[in-house]
Amino acid sequence: xxxxxxxxxxxxxxxxxxxxxxxxxxxxxxxxxxxxxxxxxxxxxxxxxxxxxxxxxxxxxxxxxxxxxxxxxxxxxxxxxxxxxxxxxxxxxxxxxxxxxxxxxxxxxxxxxxxxxxxxxxxxxxxxxxxxxxxxxxxxxxxxxxxxxxxxxxxxxxxxxxxxxxxxxxxxxxxxxxxxxxxxxxxxxxxxxxxxxxxxxxxxxxxxxxxxxxxxxxxxxxxxxxxxxxxxxxxxxxxxxxxxxxxxxxxxxxxxxxxxxxxxxxxxxxxxxxxxxxxxxxxxxxxxxxx
Length: 291
Fold this sequence. Notes:
It contains nine helices and ten strands.
């Protein structure tokens, strides 16, 4: 809250290698720290015009898009003041007049906390992705696809719009594995899944349902629209052979479809109907759409 002290602190921080954003009052500081690209380290004076440092800290704890490490700088040094600061979820506390070595050490401590948090968030995100996606194709796994279909069916009940499901199965995949090994089979699965995904609309979903079988969820899609999309998927896979070493592997898929306007009930009922249609497609010669 004092211009001279603020400029001195800014000079010291710049000297330590920090990029400094200066706020002259609590309201301004709060606005800066709540912005999407706001600083992740904050030094707040306890007493400030507009809003004091503890009020700003409480606000950013409730509203900030990312964690901000907060150090309160103040002349208050009573034990009850320290308790009040930590109750406001302040991370650290320095009494005035500050000494540069102490300030530097506390800032470095804050950086370590932020780096640790970033590492934990990255690890959590990776674990969440691994729990919901197939490691080979990058598509949803069976559980995630089923959950997505269940949510789309609930939404369809509210809106009255249809949901369609496709079950796609690679034709003669065992022969591909026998002729080209599992590495060749994996390459075919990756290529086929990428082609199908690229042929879908932005709001469609696709997952690996198991082995060489894929489930496609088509929100707001009638049976006739689903058939058009299924044909597009079939052609997208058939049109390009998969390169594997010196080999060129021909790949086709059979697809069964179902629609919520014809199959009432749960995700299980829709998938069962699409599965029955898929068997008909296989029995009718493969590389075709049934349903």
